[in-house]
Design goal:
The structure is a homodimer. Helices cover 70% and strands 1% of the residues of chain A. By secondary structure, chain A is mainly alpha-helical. In chain A, strands 1-2 form a two-stranded antiparallel ribbon. In chain A, a hairpin with a 2-residue loop joins strand 1 and strand 2.
Chain lengths: 298, 298
Amino acid sequence: MTDIKTQLKEFNQVFTPYLESLFNFPQGPEKKVMEAGRYSLTNGGKRLRPFLVYRCAALFGVPLFPAPAQIGASLEMLHTYSLIHDDLPAMDNDDLRRGHPTCHKQYGEATAILAGDGLLTEAFRLIATAPLSAEIRCQLTEKLSFLAGWQQGMIAGQCLDLYAETAPKDINQEKLIADIEEMKTGALIRYACEAGAIIGKANEKQFEALSTYARKIGTAFQIVDDILDVEGDAALMGKTLGKDAVQGKATFVSCYGLEQAKEIAQKLITEAKESLKVFSFGAEPLAELADYIYSRNI
Amino acid sequence: MTDIKTQLKEFNQVFTPYLESLFNFPQGPEKKVMEAGRYSLTNGGKRLRPFLVYRCAALFGVPLFPAPAQIGASLEMLHTYSLIHDDLPAMDNDDLRRGHPTCHKQYGEATAILAGDGLLTEAFRLIATAPLSAEIRCQLTEKLSFLAGWQQGMIAGQCLDLYAETAPKDINQEKLIADIEEMKTGALIRYACEAGAIIGKANEKQFEALSTYARKIGTAFQIVDDILDVEGDAALMGKTLGKDAVQGKATFVSCYGLEQAKEIAQKLITEAKESLKVFSFGAEPLAELADYIYSRNI
């Protein structure tokens, strides 16, 4: 078995050309918005979320093609839309993403807004046309729209993140950060694993195990991101670092300090791996992935 | 039978409270984005698209509640997201919509972007959870994501509309305007009627009749909009008028002149009504609606 870093790389080498193959460009000038969407979608990215869909479905013997690949592509499009809108001047106002100009820097703000809208819309088209039963397609559509949504999903987390920038300092910072993480980053990682379980027709116990695994690594992922914003190498990461501290933004690091943040992340990774014990075999890549999330660049 | 204006008004009186009832606000500060979405959704609007879903489904004996109402709500949310994003400073930069401040004027740009994203996401959740067979829910999801999308749908039309602002003057203006209309405005009107037909389990001939009807009134609707931008009453319409001429934007009126534009719209309305002859009874409201679209304020 190759190590997880190689597995992710090999997956990316198969998955990114597949992603590119999904684009069917119109002939007229309206193709610009799709070009902008593809630019952001194929501009780097580890494909962590589609990899999770794939590995979770694989636990039940479902191969990458066709269904997990299409559901993974849908999720990667949805994730990319959130990055494009997040980078906009009115939001985080970022110029750099994965070492390249952000979508609005490259294509202008109007096209970037539309490219995000297009990716989000296309994400749902990909689920609706996936080679899965209609029941499962509806289940996945419902789950994704909830976990990406404004009630308790990604958009709600994004809204809370905006609020946090000017929130009074006497509120419960730990709870605020945990809530933001759970909704903003955690929700899509959770969807990735739960979608894999749904495609694989997991029983309740198996579904819960993968859902727990996802929640644990999702939080760990965000903590590591906050640590890297302090300790990371900007060139290696391809984005502007140190922004949290400059903006005086509450993060896991500002709340708990570097050392304790690392301990919490490590504990979550251990718990994530424990939840995989339900599976008698096939879960090694998910366990290794959990370790990899912790060790990324720390 | 009451006249169509009264029917629309009565429909609105039932449908808008229903729309409001769909909001389940979170408790924390993340509720702001949902508030912004509801603000734009319930801030006036004739509910033309949900009314079309309802009246087309009614041709097949399907009552408004529960399914056509939920699919109509989904469509109205999607329509409203497009208005919110369209009004943004980077797009049309409008301060006024339906006589009220636009979403970003009221809630700030970041929240408005998220509110649009939230409405779009929620639109797909409403389809996925509608009381219809899973097959039909998937069919509706696929159709909406295509007609609202970036390949030949609403987003592609929006992109073409941006392009039109700086397009070379020697291109085929008539084709450009027809393409923009078909994708930008026409696509959702077409979805409304086709969704009603799908919910009603229309046969092929009935489906095609409603699809043709929708295309005809969709184009007529846009032509009338262009005419009203020149001849309309700003106070009555609740938005800034005369913008097309100021921006030197190509419209049906700038291409064909006022009189010919009116003739084209009238011809389309006649053809739209002819396509309804497939139905031996029940289509009167749709025929009256076609006339109403032409006569709105001309």
